[in-house]
Write a structure and sequence with these properties.
CATH topology of the largest domain: Transferase(Phosphotransferase), domain 1
Mean pLDDT: 93
Radius of gyration: 18 Å
Shape: globular
Largest sheet: 5 strands, antiparallel
Distance between the termini: 48 Å
Bound molecules: adenosine-5'-diphosphate, magnesium ion
Number of strands: 10
Low-confidence stretches: none
Order of helices and strands: EEEHHEEEHHEEHHEE
Strand order of the largest sheet: 1-2-3-5-4
Number of helices: 6
Length: 220
């Protein structure tokens, strides 16, 4: 039973990957899952106002994780029978581990069992085939359709791997509205504009071409 209340032991495992803020571990005995644990800050937060908010409202430490979970849950609720095309890695809630609180997520891997490659490395290594480009555009269509609020969608947060038997692009990080006034969640127009901007930035880094009117990437 994966989500029992026992404290999971991860301290004897090396993380499979590290991001700017989190370590990513294999979930013991659950090959389809990963656990993301935020690393403790090593340096003191430089902003006085942020330190003050943290002191008065200590729960703000969990805000980013909560916003991410909320975004995934909302998209999963909206997606109905098309859940298999959900463009985000699924998220399954919280576990406690001996290296800190963790969020359980769907593991996206390549056919060799390694964690899936990201879009930037795919574009740099072999370039995208027509099939991959089609997969990428199906992924993008879903982002717009489900009104995913991206705060940091870039080519390293999008991976290409297997969900069941299907090879697809998925967003693994960089989503969830963080603004105090959630403008992009409230306005489709504003969110479309923000998604468009992030797609353009991806195009700039990967040498793909973003067609804003049709909302598709083309090969450069
Ligand atoms: N669901 C996932 N499936 C496969 N690999 C993942 C998944 N989530 C994260 N990773 C890998 O772990 C790395 C760090 O995770 P990420 O969530 O981006 O951490 P951070 O928030 O610190 O940037 C990613 O760049 C990616 O290589
Ligand atoms: Mg990341």
């Amino acid at each position: 039973m994966p989500f029992a209340v026992q404290l999971l032991r991860l301290s004897d495992q090396e993380p499979l990957a590290k991001g700017g803020h989190r370590n990513v571990y294999a979930y013991p005995d659950q090959p389809a899952l990963l656990i993301k644990v935020t690393r403790p800050r090593t340096r003191r937060n430089r902003s006085f106002s942020k330190r003050l908010v943290r002191r008065i409202l200590p729960d703000t430490a969990f805000r980013n994780a909560l916003k991410e979970i909320e975004c995934e849950m909302k998209a999963a609720l909206k997606s109905g029978e098309e859940i298999a095309q959900l463009p985000l890695a699924r998220s399954f809630g919280v576990v406690q581990t001996d290296v800190g609180p963790g969020v359980v997520v769907e593991r996206i891997q390549s056919s060799d069992g390694q964690l899936a490659n990201h879009l930037l490395s795919m574009c740099r290594q072999q370039g995208l085939s027509d099939q991959m480009l089609g997969d990428l555009n199906r992924f993008v269509e879903k982002l717009f359709e489900l009104q995913i609020v991206g705060r940091d969608i870039h080519a390293e947060n999008i991976v290409y791997g297997l969900r069941g038997q299907t090879r697809m692009f998925l967003l693994i990080d960089g989503y969830g509205e963080r603004n105090l006034v959630p403008l992009r969640s409230l306005s489709r127009r504003l969110n479309d504009r923000s998604l468009n901007k992030q797609m353009q930035q991806i195009a700039d880094r990967t040498r793909l071409v973003w067609d804003k009117a049709r909302r598709v990437f083309n090969l450069g």
